[in-house]
Amino acid sequence: MDTSTSLITQWLGIAFICALLIERILQMLKALLNYLEARKPKPDYWNLRAVNLTQSYLNAQQSAPDFAELLGRRYLLTEQREDSPENQHLMVDANRVRQLATRGRLKVLGIILGVTLAFILDLNLFDLVSKAQDMPSFTCPTDNPDCTIKIIRDALGKLVMGIGLGLGATPLHEMIARLERAYNTVKTIKG
Amino acid sequence: MSPDPLVVLTIAAGLALTVERILEAVKHIIDAKTPPSRVEMLEQAADITADTLKQARDAVESAKTGKPAPTLSSPTPMQTAPTLDAPDFPRQPLMVIQGIEVLSATPRSLEKTRRLLFYQLFAAGAGILLAGLFDVHLFYAFLHGLSASPMEHFFRDWAFIDELFTGLIIGGGSQPVHLVIGYLTQGGGKSSRGV
Questions:
Q1: Fewest CB atoms less than 10 Å from the CB: which of A33, B94, B144, B192?
Q2: Least CA distance to A76: which residue of chain B?
Q3: Threshold 0.80, pTM exceeds
Q4: Domain with B3 in it
């Protein structure tokens, strides 16, 4: 393993380890939330949310069909009843609403944790991929070493990396692989 | 001598496997000591009934179509989440709004969630203990030598935080750590080799 590869492996490794850590924290938090919910169940809250969602879906069918379709895909369950096989019964399950809400909240928390870690550990996705591709890093003009575009690029790279970290190790790997393919294509086009 | 990050990661994978085995043993002990609750027994009975019904339906279908019915040994996809058209079990609707039934939320099983939380905490605790015993510091190992990283010194001076984080990762089991080893060794940071 040459030195440059080793450094890139280290950067990639730290990114994947952070993603694993966030995954673990979220798993534990989910178990804790489920336990707390079992101790103090609040079915009325989820039932009310399910009812509100159903109302929103019905309202959106008139005013915003695209949004209604989105809601329907996410929350509507269908069931074929034996008494009327031609009719599909539509349902909104409060358990599913609870499950999706918890998952969504944890995902948001994961992304917040990921972005925080990316900024603390200085993990920039764009720099990482350009290093892996042996491409020169972005440099500002010599008369303006701290150009705005570099600051924006850095912040954006860390933000994207943070989102990747929050989503988990496998999505992060997927993101890096796709970005590398894109860089490769650009390299090929440039000759 | 600086620690080789991949070696440290491999040790972490080994420890994660150890935690996994210990957790498995603890689960068996707890399951053997705890008699199944009434709800669990009913759930098991419902599962068996559903399987029997499915087999009967398959047999009828096979008799109609002439195609051989799937046997018990045939591989079936593992369900990780309830599918859209298969709710957990039939429940009475809370109310019906313009033809859409709203099913009420069912309370989670306290025993089950408590056990799951215990397993999570036990795995994390065992991971932290092993990380401390074997002196495994993943963050320091990977950040070491990266001149651009200001956090290297932090993890060197506050080693117990590194142990805590490493322990949490080890507690997650060997599969995720193996996955990361796979990504790093296949790719090694070079796209032509897979990352």
A1: B192
A2: B84
A3: no
A4: 1-36+109-195
